[in-house]
Design brief:
six-stranded mixed beta sheet; Rossmann fold; 45% helix; alpha/beta; 19 helices; globular; 603 residues
């Protein structure tokens, strides 16, 4: 059984009249990969600050194991001016640099990247270097606060593969359902003052929440029936001398009866997007167009037709031109050459990344929404949409100036949805939204009958909303001939092929400089044994899944009425085999790196 690393016991934390945690308790054990979810403002980041001792509980305690070594990856950067990646790692690491670079190889950072000033690098490489610096502190528990924010898909996949193979424990705050599904084996829900830990990934969490809710509802209904029975008995016989003692006895049992509180599921809201206006079949057309800015062409020879009802996900690396394409589609950026035309009756509502900052701070939530709504939209419709975006009661009277970043994003999104446009162009609409609102927006856009063109770093959101995939790469735009899952898979395969550069072994000079090189050699030998065990475990599980699928396939062939459970099981096995094959590739590369590093000790 894994040893306990950290416990929170009866934790209470308040800010003024608002209570974040009310006698909350949970524990984290060695090797656990825990996803942390909850609404904006529930206290997830505050929890991390408390665990990292940057803040404190009002009452309660955090019990830390003597073997605990914690690392914290915050949302804020801590670079020195002009600092290179190598200089940053030398400043923060506790282990030999050569050992750190071997550990960090899955993050795919080469020497050329580490030699550059960090502030000159993309957000994806900055995140990789921050994570590498965290590894240099040799933690056995990492706190990761929204590590996928603003990362492109390639870097997210690198991070995902790294976390899948990480031996230590981590707590991971994320709103990306797909990322949580692939990297975690427990879920920690922070909500309404409570902290609850669930076994399994995010899909298991939803199933357990639904099951628990059903059981509690059944129990509550049973207790309600018993209460009614007791009260009816007292009302009928309480005044009769022969029944008075029985009535009093039953009233006492009623007072002792437990109370069941049935809490709602995390997705407690439903966003209803107003029905779009009727249009022609063609939503928009782009013919041999180029888009860019006076001194730089970003996209060239773009040819594109989007039809009414298409839900188009735009994908590509950061800086490839996704936002430029959306500006062109929205009409806010005219083509440098070529033609851009809207279809009959098409009107576009554009959610750009700057629209949150463009809100008038003097408005209230309600007045801001009213300004964006057409004249035929009734006040009750506006209130209904505001409520679905978690502005209920007096919240609609709040001034924009006092709202949090997530609340401002919800207002800006509401202004777009109220316009009843037939085509929604959305650039990163999920940024700053909590898990609950992202889920609600996902369901709303899936059901929306109009046209949607969207860019998002949230893989789960894109996977469920996009039915067509546009890839932006090397200044070109092409319709990807497959689903988003197939696109991700193809990118993973390409990354696996390209990730073949072996790290250099430690030089004689580095070994001489390292005073504990013998210990490092033993540690490296231990790591080699561990990675070889992981390779063997992967091979064993792959063989078992393949054998199970062969049996299920025979069952389906012979059964005239095959069960959906068998089909789902085969599909899940297929996905797991793909994941294991990618893990096997990563572990094989780690083994090769370890062998080369060990060879350096004897050369």
């Amino acid at each position: 059984m894994a040893d306990n690393l950290l416990q929170l016991q009866n934790g209470v934390k308040s800010f003024g009249p608002r209570t974040l945690f009310d006698r909350a308790s949970f524990a984290v054990n060695e090797g656990e990969h825990v996803g942390v979810i909850g609404p904006n403002g529930a206290g997830k980041s505050t929890l991390f600050h408390i665990l990292h001792e940057d803040d404190h509980l009002d009452t309660g305690q955090v019990i830390r194991s003597k073997k605990l070594s914690m690392g914290y990856l915050s949302q804020h950067d801590h670079w020195e001016p002009g600092e290179t990646g190598n200089q940053f790692l030398e400043r923060v690491t506790r282990i030999p640099i050569w050992d750190l670079k071997s550990k960090g190889r899955p993050l795919q950072i080469d020497e050329a990247i580490l030699a550059k000033p960090i502030l000159s690098l993309s957000g994806g490489y900055r995140m990789r270097i921050k994570l590498m610096g965290l590894l240099g502190q040799d933690p056995n528990l990492m706190l990761l606060d929204e590590p996928t924010n603003y990362l492109d898909l390639e870097t997210t996949l690198v991070l995902e593969r790294f976390l899948q193979g990480y031996d230590g424990a981590f707590l991971l705050i994320s709103h990306d359902r797909e990322f949580l599904r692939r990297t975690t084996d427990h879920i920690l829900e922070v909500e309404a003052g409570e902290i609850t830990k669930y076994n399994g990934n995010i899909d298991d969490y939803f199933e357990q929440k639904e099951l628990l809710r059903t059981q509690l509802a059944s129990r509550a209904a049973s207790l309600a029936d018993k209460r009614k029975e007791i009260l009816d008995f007292v009302a009928r016989f309480g005044a009769k001398a022969t029944k008075a003692s029985q009535a009093q006895s039953r009233l006492k049992s009623l007072a002792k009866m437990e109370t069941i509180e049935v809490k709602s599921l995390p997705v407690t809201t439903t966003i209803r997007i107003p029905a779009p206006i009727k249009t022609g079949k063609l939503a928009l057309s782009i013919d041999r167009a180029s888009f860019g800015y006076p001194n730089k062409k970003i996209l060239d020879n773009v040819n594109l037709q989007i039809t009414r009802g298409d839900h188009v996900a735009v994908v590509g690396l950061n800086g490839a031109g996704k936002s430029t394409l959306l500006k062109g589609i929205s009409g806010s950026l005219a083509p440098m050459e070529g033609k851009f035309e809207l279809g009959f009756g098409t009107e576009i509502a554009f959610f750009a990344q700057h629209v949150v900052e463009a809100l008038d701070a003097r408005d209230t939530v309600m007045s801001s929404l009213q300004k964006a709504a057409p004249h035929d939209v009734k006040p009750q419709e506006i209130l209904d949409l505001a409520g679905s975006l978690l502005f209920s009661g007096d919240d609609v009277k709040k001034s924009i100036s006092v709202l949090s970043g997530g609340e401002k994003s919800r207002v800006a999104l509401g202004r777009i949805l109220l316009q009843k446009s037939s085509c929604l162009v959305l650039d990163e609409p999920t940024n700053h939204l909590d898990f609950q609102t992202v889920e609600a927006l996902t369901h709303a856009l899936r059901a929306y009958e109009g046209t949607v063109v969207v860019v998002s770093h949230d893989r789960g959101f894109i996977k469920r909303v996009g039915t067509k995939i546009l890839e932006v790469s090397n200044g070109k735009v092409r319709l990807y001939p497959g689903t988003y899952e197939e696109y991700v898979w193809s990118l993973q395969q390409e990354m696996a092929r390209e990730d073949s550069a072996a790290p250099r072994s430690a030089t004689t000079e580095e070994k001489v400089r390292a005073p504990n090189w013998k210990e490092n050699k033993k540690k490296l030998e231990k790591e080699l044994r561990m990675v070889e065990k992981k390779i063997a475990d992967c091979e064993t599980e792959i063989a078992a899944k393949q054998k199970e699928n062969e049996a299920l396939n025979q069952e389906l062939i012979q059964d005239t009425n095959p069960s959906m459970e068998s089909i789902r099981r085969m599909s899940a096995n297929g996905e797991r085999i793909q994941e294991l094959e990618l893990l096997w590739l990563g572990f094989a590369e780690e083994r090769e790196a370890a062998l080369k590093a060990l060879a350096g000790f004897t050369s």
